[in-house]
Amino acid sequence: MPRSALTTPAHDPTPIFESFRGAYATQLLTAAVAEFDLFRVVSETSPTIQDLHRSVGLERRPAVVLTTALRAMGLLACDSDGRLSLTPMAAEHLLPGGEFDVSGYVSLAADDPAVREMIERLRTNRPANAEAEEGAAFIYRDGMESA
């Protein structure tokens, strides 16, 4: 017998999804710390996303992806003028040289192949393994690589 769309599972699957997404969060956080020095840049300049993507050498879309993830992690804030700032947690723990700085520890993952691949995706603004210069289609198109 089919279940109602309103039937809820006996157990909340949220922890499964949090663990699944956690790998990407780790990769993005490590990229921000070890590759782009993003927390120092934000601390020193309070940039807009437009300023930031130029400062760290990313196109706008990957910079938005990265900063959105860091905001969701509670590490960046954005004011009504669109200026980014560090949250107190990020200021205390992710600024190099601070008394409670853990950026060196986070950077230990910088050479992990998945982190390097994420950095490449951010730098190139292209999906993983996309070789063609024209990019990749997210739906099938004859003659074009699909993502």
3D architecture notes:
- The chain has 147 residues and is mostly helical.
- It has one domain: Orthogonal Bundle (Arc Repressor Mutant, subunit A), CATH 1.10.10.10.
- It has seven helices and two strands.
- It has helices at 14-35, 38-45, 49-56, 60-72, 88-93, 103-107, 113-124, and strands at residues 76-78, 84-86.
- The protein has a two-stranded antiparallel sheet.
- Helix 1 (14-35) crosses helix 7 and helix 3 packs across helix 4 (60-72).
What's the helix and strand layout?
Elements: H1 14-35, H2 38-45, H3 49-56, H4 60-72, E1 76-78, E2 84-86, H5 88-93, H6 103-107, H7 113-124
Antiparallel strand pairs: 1-2
Helix pairs in contact: 1-7, 3-4
Which stretches are poorly predicted, pLDDT < 50 over at least 5 residues? none
| CATH C-level class | Mainly Alpha
In spatial order, strands of the major sheet run 1-2
Helix content: 40-55%
Order of helices and strands: HHHHEEHHH
CATH superfamily membership: Winged helix-like DNA-binding domain superfamily/Winged helix DNA-binding domain
CATH architecture: Orthogonal Bundle
Rounded to an integer in angstroms, the radius of gyration calculated over CA atoms is 18 Å
Spatial shape: globular
Note the main sheet. 2 strands, antiparallel
Distance between the termini: 37 Å
Short descriptors:
Arc Repressor Mutant, subunit A; 147 residues; two-stranded antiparallel sheet; globular; mainly alpha
Quick structural summary:
This protein has 147 residues and is mostly helical.
